[in-house]
Predict the structure.
Amino acid sequence: MKKMTLGAILALGLFSGTALAQSAWTGGDDLPTSPLACDGTPAAAVSVPYDGGAPTNPPDRNGKKITVVDVPKLIGIGYFNATTKGILDAAAELGNVDAKTDGPTKANIDEQITFLDNYITSGVDGILFAANDPVAIAPVLKKALEKGINVVGYDANSTPDARQWFVNQAQFNGIAKALVDQMATEVGGEGGVAIVTSTFTTPNQARWIAEMAAYAAACHPKLKWLETVEAQEDNNLSFNQATTLINKYGDELKGIWGMTSVATPASAEAVTQAKACGKIAVVGLATPNAMKPYVGADCVKSVVLWNPVDLGYAAMHVLRQVADGTLKPGATSVKAGKLGELQVINGSEILLGAPYVFNKDNINDFDF
Amino acid sequence: MTATKLLRHETILAVLTVIALAVLASLSDKFFTVENLLNQGRLMSEVGLVALAMTFVIVTGGIDLSVGSILGLTAILLGVFWKNLGLPLPLAMLAAIACGTFAGWVNGFIITRFRVPPLIATLATLALYRGLAEGISEARSVRGYPEWFFFFGQGEVLGVPFQLWLLGLATVIAAVILGLTPFGRATYAIGANETAARFSGIRVNATKLWIYTAAGFLSALAAVVFVSRVTTTRSDMGTGLELDVITGVVLGGTSIFGGRGTIIGTVLGLILIQALKNGLSLSGVKGDGTIVVIGLVLIGAILAGALFDRNRGG
């Protein structure tokens, strides 16, 4: 009996082990990829009909004061503090929006759903969200639409029919190209590289990794992907995972991509503490403040991101125009205050702009 | 361990719950509506189902930290059985629940046969089951369930959410078993003094094995409801569930040292926590403030309980 149980446990363990070993570029999703051209020639724009949802019998909110709640993936981290700042800036500028941010303290979809559900009951006019899971969040967002609430996403999308518009901070293939190009430049075009991500099913990260795999295969085939590790969005765990990568692969490891604003500084810290600056490149998505020490010490050369303050700012402007009824399905561009005209892509998404690369020369101009 | 003392903790808790409900209702007019209360019932069903089994576990002086991982593993298996192995969905549901129940049985087996303390055993399986869930799913989520499947998590029967009926039925069964049957008395006896129970001819190991298996079963059942409610399967589902469950059970007056606790107490504990989370949110308190209040209420309730014990003892 004992032997049987132990045998069963071992067999299960081996099964999951082999399952993990088989997949290449773990952490990507199954969706089709569209890598950009290696030299950056822009792809032709394709017109897609509006595929977002619509609220049921919303009251006339044109020009009226509205209450808006912003429920990001989690609260208390630099990145979402920055989007909140953008949302509040825009709300102050508009003058007829009462906005606040609330959400779980961990990137947990169960808790995020509960937060949204409570705010729907409390009767807000508009919801801004950044989804922890695109499908799991859909039922509660659809419920909001059914109650006539305007719903706009930013940062991390839901299924399109569960919200009206989504403000896309950067196209996935654009970010992927920037990340892979920077890495290729820093490691000299070849060598082993690894990824520290949040979780394998987080929509943004999964999409980027899939696009990075496709772009690297086409444009930098000598980059050898070693492993993707999960680190939630947890500082300590990210540091430990990056340290494990450094110890596990030794000289084979030439670079680490950090896929979250937590994983990138933690990986840079791990490389610094391993005294491997210059030997192991760190390229990733992060907020400038967290990266200033490492960029200043020449351990990290480039940080890729968009401006999250602008992202929150744009999302708030989009929500206001949806509530006013001035942004309708079929629009091709949106005016977003100081950001000017933003382009509509993929039917119901609004593109913030091209990714931004922070380096030693410009990073001190930013404070978020 | 007298009936009056048991009653007393629950009376305090019931009074506390009523006060909380009244205060919350006065803070927000959206709180005490039928729609909101039913919706809150829907949201607390998964934690509630698992908490019923956890009450038994803690009454025996044990603990089960792996329930959240069993929920995650069952959810993943449901998706894998249906999508990857191509089983019909009803069969996949049964098979996944069977696997979750087996996972609970393995907990019980390790604890009773190898005399491993439940804290250690289930801490190990907490990691093991979560790892299996991540490995088996290859970190992919399973989506695209048929419309009828959403009934379990989103449907209503006579205007009341389906899972609330399920929770109500399970609560009655659990309360009867714990309060009125020899099995229930054996559960208390084990928690009060395991050695004495053993010498009194109570089948300690068999009882514990049943209880941990039941914890696996109810976690698996909660997993199906959960997948149906959120329409997708992820390997990180149920992370941290064990803490919510244990909080509810302990707030309900079940002693972490075993031998004391009731189902009605657990239900009151769950209602109080859910009401606080929801009511405070509706009255404009932010999420971080709500957690602080729940922590304070938990400490307050336990201190009050301890105070009563001391008064009665001295």
